[in-house]
Design goal:
By secondary structure, the chain is an alpha/beta fold. It contains twelve helices and seven strands. The chain has a seven-stranded mixed sheet, with helices on both faces. The mean pLDDT is about 95.
């Protein structure tokens, strides 16, 4: 029940997972630049775009993983941004046989920072408190305003179109639903990072919230096949605001890997 967009004409297969509160179209700029490298599926996450709603009887992290897995007929280069980065990471540890390479762009796996950099995590936790507090009392508009100020592309809330405001506001409960995976690591991902053996590319924006530096440092230290890249003058929405730079990094990374046709 997942909606997806197929794009590109490259020799390798890819799966792209967008950030929380967006949809697959958010990565159109990136997929356009990767068209010569990948034939890609860009998936609407559960509860987003035209995909089915989140089934509240299920864990949101598990549902996202299973939805992504259902689209794959063979191993793919998996690329995820923000929450999509966590989903890609979860797919790699739970179903490594379906992942040829892993690209994590600003993966919001806060549990990594919480364990390895508790001081830095507390700084982030303080900035996130108004968001979660507003969701808890049902003030979804205030929550959406605070969320976009912290994790958006720099556009003021008031500059968004009413339809954009409504889309984000209606999905704020998904932010709370993601905490079990992102903060409490209910998928036991952190303990299995060293099991990842496929090539891994970590990308962050230089001007993103400092917690992202901690997260990427932990992932780089735990995943022996990883390498880090930083895009200057970019924030959390780097694959959207700096699609050309990010596509250049990913394209070169994919070109470094053996061709699928060469792997028996």
């Amino acid at each position: 029940m997942a909606h997806f967009i197929r794009s590109g004409h490259g020799p390798e297969e890819g799966l792209l997972l967008h950030c929380m509160l967006a949809d697959a179209r958010a990565l159109d700029g990136l997929t356009a630049k990767l068209g010569g490298h990948l034939t890609a599926l860009s998936m609407d996450l559960p509860g987003h775009g035209q995909s089915e709603d989140w089934d509240t009887s299920r864990d949101f992290g598990e549902m996202t993983r299973d939805t992504a897995l259902g689209l794959l007929e063979r191993p793919a280069h998996v690329i995820g941004h923000s929450y999509g980065g966590y989903a890609a990471l979860r797919l790699a540890v739970d179903h490594p046989e379906m992942v040829r390479s892993l690209t994590l762009i600003e993966p919001v796996f806060f549990a990594a920072a919480k364990q390895e950099d508790p001081t830095g995590f507390k700084v982030y936790e303080k900035t996130a408190r108004p968001i979660m507090g507003a969701i808890a009392v049902g003030d979804l508009v205030s929550a959406a305003r605070s969320f976009t100020a912290l994790w958006g592309n720099g556009r003021p809330w008031e500059s968004l179109k009413p339809a954009e405001m409504d889309y984000i506001t209606q999905r704020m409960p998904l932010v709370a639903a993601s905490e079990a995976a992102l903060l409490r690591d209910n998928g036991d991902v952190l303990q299995r990072l060293d099991e990842i053996t496929v090539p891994c590319l970590l990308i962050r924006g230089a001007d993103s919230p400092t917690v992202m530096t901690s997260i990427c440092d932990v992932l780089a230290a735990r995943i022996s096949t990883s390498r880090k890249e930083v895009v200057e003058d970019a924030g959390h929405m780097v694959p959207i605001t700096h699609a050309v730079d990010v596509a250049g990094l990913i394209g070169a990374f994919i070109d470094d890997q053996p061709r699928s046709s060469d792997i028996s």
